[in-house]
Specification:
This protein is α+β, with helices and mostly antiparallel strands. It has two domains: about 100 residues, GIY-YIG endonuclease, CATH 3.40.1440; about 130 residues, no CATH class. A hairpin with a 2-residue loop joins β6 and β7. The longest helix is centred in the middle third of the chain and has 13 residues. The mean pLDDT is about 85.
């Protein structure tokens, strides 16, 4: 089957669907749509992990298991539902290219993360530190290593400011998400990261270090520092040293 009858489409409205391996039942793709959107992937010819997986099934004489997870949705709630499901399963376990609709803002969070978002407990920073906003790459389900890697590079910063800083704070929406201890600085691209090896960048740097001690993390993690960033300031780094 590659399309729904007209009366089915009228009742489905917006829906979220999943593709699974018919043998292992491992879910490998989550999507949203309406009408016959769910079947479009079967005709997809793009070079991507999803299409590769589908082609491997076809070579074995198999068809993916396609299920409608939820339907009858009238508004853009379907976007949040899709995003929540991807967060639950883990983007790394799927062939989806990226996390979708406001996952970083409303996605899967721990209780402490939820409290930090809405309580916004402010704290002064006593140690010489860099406050680094990683808004573009952040999601609440990031591991400690991912947070560390996206915090440590790649930045334009003066050698004096870099040298004086002992800690780097990973900031998202004004909240400290992680605290890293800085050991040394390198030219950007000189070390491996979870993002893979990149070419060195002459005008940018990265630091090498580790996740800070539990004492420092307990003091600062999930506290608000939004007052340190002036409105309209687009600079991702603030210096507190």
């Amino acid at each position: 089957m590659n399309q729904f009858p007209k009366n089915v489409i009228e009742n489905l409205k917006n829906y979220v669907y999943i593709y699974s391996d018919p043998i292992t039942e491992k879910m490998f793709y989550v999507g949203k749509g309406k009408g016959n959107r769910v079947f479009d992937h079967l005709k997809d010819k793009k070079e991507c992990e999803k299409v590769t997986y589908l082609n491997e099934l076809l070579e074995k004489g198999l068809q993916p298991k396609i299920e409608i997870l939820i339907h009858g949705i009238e508004d853009d709630s379907v976007l949040r539902i899709e995003s929540a499901i991807i967060d639950l399963l883990g983007i790394k376990n799927l062939t989806n290219k990226q996390v979708v609709f406001k996952s970083a803002e409303f996605g899967r969070m721990t209780v402490k993360q939820i409290i930090s978002v809405y309580s916004k407990q402010k704290i002064p920073i006593d140690e010489p530190s860099l406050l680094i906003r990683i808004n573009q790459h952040f999601r609440y389900s990031m591991t400690e290593m991912e947070l560390y890697d996206f915090t440590r590079g790649y930045w334009k910063i003066s050698s004096k400011r870099a040298k004086n800083a002992k800690y780097a704070f990973a900031i998202y929406n004004g909240i400290i998400q992680e605290v890293c201890e800085i050991k040394t600085w390198l030219k950007a691209g000189e070390s491996m990261t979870v993002r893979g090896k990149i070419k060195t960048i002459d005008d940018r740097v990265e630091f090498i270090g580790n996740i800070a001690s539990e004492t420092i993390r307990a003091k600062y993690k999930y506290k608000s520092v939004e007052d340190y960033f002036k409105k309209g300031n687009a600079n991702p780094i603030m210096c507190n040293n």
